Amino acid sequence: MRDASVFSQQWMTVPAATAGDVSPASLLQCYFAFLRRVTCGLVRPESRADGVRFRLAGTRADLIRFLPPRSEVLDGEETLFLAICGGFLVQGKASDRGVLAFCVAREGEGVRLTLRLADFCPLILGGSRPSRPRKWLYSLTQAYIHRLVTIRFLAGIYRELTGSGAPVRVVKAMVVDGEPI
Fold first, then answer.
1. CA Rg, the chain, in Å?
2. From CA 110, how far away is CA 77, in angstroms rounded?
3. pLDDT mean across residues, the chain
4. pLDDT digits (tens, 9 = 90+) for 71-95
């Protein structure tokens, strides 16, 4: 984004007949298990009374820290928000910015499942005016890993819900106010 914050949104649509009772809370729990598995236990999501933490195994280091989950239903879309409130991967001055959201929207014959990271200020960018090398480094590391993990997570959810593999196709899309155009 113009202020060097990050916006990333990945979504997929599953047939309504196979979606069952999928909810943002169930997606979050599946995401926790998936992160543990895909990182071989290196990243350990923890739910606590004071919020959620993505911890680096064997340390007290919080990679990212979130406030307790907050749920909302708006225009038929259920969303669970995790507001970022700190962590090693977050810029210190912007530790209270950003949100990770899990969304479920029933539309027609399908159910759209969305993961959205918005207004995130990664430490690696260094500030609101990152240099070209910092942008390049972020793109090749954190951004790439986030995109890969999210796509693999959604493909796994599709396989779990439908019993078959998803035809994964990455399509770049323009997004305005959280909606593809």
1. 16
2. 13
3. 89
4. 999 988 999 999 999 999 998 887 8
CA distances from 133 to 4, 123, 138, 141 (A): 13, 14, 9, 12
The DSSP string of 35-73 is: HHHHTTTSEEEEEETTEEEEEETTSS-EEEEEPPPEEEE
For residue 172, give every residue at least 6 positions away whose Cβ sits within 8 Å of its Cβ, in sequence order, or none.
none
* Token couple for 168: 């994964």
pLDDT in tens, 129-179: 888 898 889 888 888 888 899 999 999 999 999 888 867 777 776 666 655
Backbone angles phi, psi at 61, to 5 degrees: -75, 125
Non-local (6+) Cβ contacts of 101 within 8 A are 24, 79, 80, 81, 82, 114, 115, 116, 117, 118
Structure tokens at 85: 């409130």
